[in-house]
Amino acid sequence: MGFTLIRLLYCTSLWKFYGLSWTIQVSQLNSSMRKTTGNIVGQFLDGLNCYLRRCMFAILSVGPVPSHIAFIMDGNRRYAKKKNMEEGDGHKAGFNALTSLLRYCYELGVKYVTVYAFSIDNFKRKSTEVQSLMELMRKKIEELLEQESLINEYGVRLHFIGDMKLLTDPVRAAVEKATRVTAHNNQRVLLICVAYTSRHEIVHAVQECCKEKLNEVQASKEEKITNVAFSGIDQGLKGNDFDLLSQDSCKEYRNAIKACSTEVESAARNDGLFENNIGNHISNDTEAETTLYNGLVELAEERKDIQDEVPVIKLADIEKNMYMAVAPDPDILIRSSGEARLSNFLLWQTTTCPLYAPTALWPEIGLRHLIWAVLNFQRHYFYLEKKKKQS
């Protein structure tokens, strides 16, 4: 097994250094040939480029393939400054890089891809920049829904992760439309984190758990109080042979009381026993009241026991209410621009997830970075699986 893995890594490394070099040359030749020989040669070279890429993915697929890759798209503004581009053009170039990486991931067999598109902290930037990013986000979401887009080609379902109330109305409308239109897709999943931070997600999950537990306690309390109340009242009334649940019993009880009162009063006045009968009647009433009182005491004690109950929030409850509950935890986290920090992204879900941080800015990231990240994942796969089982 060890020798097989070493051979796999060795062959894949050869494809990485030689195959990718050839791919880059083909791409460069493709660009130049388009200008001179037209679209036919360009299409042929595009097909050759795709074939070589699929060959590399076939070799990678011999080993374990990650099911979920997350990206922190860092370095768009620095890229624009580096290339002397206008403000906002760096993010446009970053969207093109995202489209290419999504295609590579789906060709490799990755089902879930998560991208950190916009943090809640980004709202602290200049209002003009925030507005520009919101408008760009709206346009790119609409582009994703076009008929010939990558989303329709691979049957991708879109999930938007974060606090949607913080978005502008046009962006929120685009988000709702994209979610609705792609709801039937089930082959691939793209999770776009907007208006998101991991701390906000955790707080939201805990709040939802508290609401659920409070509702459960209140429902249980109302059920128990109702049961105890009916039981106590029923026992008290049955002391006088009265069935609370029977309408006929109610009528019979009222009629019997009236008849009994008339007979008692008449007999008492005729026989001089008025005081004795009244005393017996009062004695019977006192006994019924005592039974009712005991039932109410039990009810009060039951209420006290219910109030003393403390609901327990478990780990599974919090995970169930996470925004990211729609996908498994990431297998790889890739952050561009060489920054080896999470920046408040998926803190809960990345406890056993390796971080790969190439120095390339996000618009510069490409196929070679993805392959290298997958190779590192495969090399540490068994160790990571062991850690997951222990956690």
Automatic annotation (TrEMBL):
- Gene3D superfamilies (alphabetical): Decaprenyl diphosphate synthase-like
Top EC category = transferase
Signal peptide span: 1-23
Which keywords fit this entry according to its UniProt record?
Signal, Transferase
Give the EC number.
2.5.1.-
Gene Ontology cellular component list: endoplasmic reticulum
Q: Does the record bear Signal in its keywords?
A: yes
- GO molecular function term, any single one: ditrans,polycis-polyprenyl diphosphate synthase [(2E,6E)-farnesyl diphosphate specific] activity
Signal in keyword set: yes
Q: Name one Pfam family in it.
A: Prenyltransf
Could you tell me the Gene Ontology terms of the biological process aspect for this record?
A: polyprenol biosynthetic process
HAMAP family in the record, alphabetically? ISPT
PANTHER family per record: DEHYDRODOLICHYL DIPHOSPHATE SYNTHASE COMPLEX SUBUNIT DHDDS, DEHYDRODOLICHYL DIPHOSPHATE SYNTHASE FAMILY MEMBER
Q: Which family does it belong to?
A: Belongs to the UPP synthase family.
In Swiss-Prot or TrEMBL terms, this protein is called Alkyl transferase
What high-level taxonomic lineage is stated for the organism?
A: Eukaryota, Viridiplantae, Streptophyta, Embryophyta, Tracheophyta
